[in-house]
Amino acid sequence: MANAALAKANLHALRQVVAAIEEGRQHTGKLDEQPAAHAAAGRLALGIEAFDGRLEGGLPITGLCELRAALTMDAGAATGFALALSSLVQERLRPERPILWISEREAGREAGLAHAAGLVSFGISPSSLITAHPRRIEEALWVAESALQTEAFSAVVLEVRGNPAKFGLTESRRLHLKAREARLPLLLLRQAGEEEASSAQLRFCVEAAPAGLRRIGRYSAPGTIGHPAFRITVEKSRNPAPFAFVMEWNADDRQFYAAGQDAIHASGAAHPHRSPAAPADGPDRADPMGRVLAFNGAFSRAS
Question: Which domain, by its residues, includes 65?
């Protein structure tokens, strides 16, 4: 009963926020304003010429795009990339609108929830991010669809765990069409999920990449850690050949940059050892046994 009451209260609060945003847009008349260059192209350039060129201009500014973390350990990197994309969309296209982050309860339990200090490090004000935590995937889909119908947000992020049986091709197509009608980007953030058929225009597999050194002017500071870096593999796009790219996010500029020369080669990983390393002096020996007590009949004798 308490959980049900809390869910209703959260939903009521979300509706009040949306209503307030809608009322403000009616007074300012800014609901449908978009920079002409971005609206005409239908793409949002990430700022890396080689990457944007392969995507025919960048990230679509409407419709469904999927960010996939193949393993749970990559969920943090995928979340960071989703935050960076959302920050870019908000700053360039709809700075007056908040971001809606819908996290299915199971996804939140595994990867954690948004933290205010972390949002600031990605260029997002905590006051401009609204979160919703539905208990079931059906509720999460309903919240996403309702949010797209309001047109009150700069971007909507739907975070799910794995490959839910009740979120398939039909449901993804419905959300994609709703996002197209609302002229909004919908980012599907999938934790520890497999590749599957969906209506997403793009699908990125996101992994953490080694960060370079922090730069001060033209110089790199030894022993420091630079901006967060991501290894992005484009698994689905109009370009049939998959390709990978390593980029870093600069929250101060709200801009992606190609990974610098200070970073490890793109084929490397931020955590190259996915299992405990073997000891340098060889495998450990088994602990010595204590006294052995024999029981009659415990073992059959060979005839």
Answer: 41-203
